[in-house]
Amino acid sequence: xxxxxxxxVGFFCGTSGPIPFSLLLHTLTGTALAAGGxxxxxxxxxxxxxxxxxxxxxxxxxxxxxxAAIASLVGTWYLL
Length: 80
What we know:
Layout: H1 2-14, H2 21-42, H3 50-57, H4 59-79
Helix pairs in contact: 1-2, 2-4, 3-4
């Protein structure tokens, strides 16, 4: 959520005049896709990625967090 807020503030500060809401929606959707993809990739349980550490620590939490990352990615994709 913080990355979307940051993208919104940056968009708002960089826009002069009325806010083009369709462009704002596309910007926030693209930002959410990039953030969700990065989160899901980072949670792959392999090597030095965080997913391996979380999985070793608690497999239930890993499933919960990975499910949330995939749900945000898929949900944003279907928003398009």
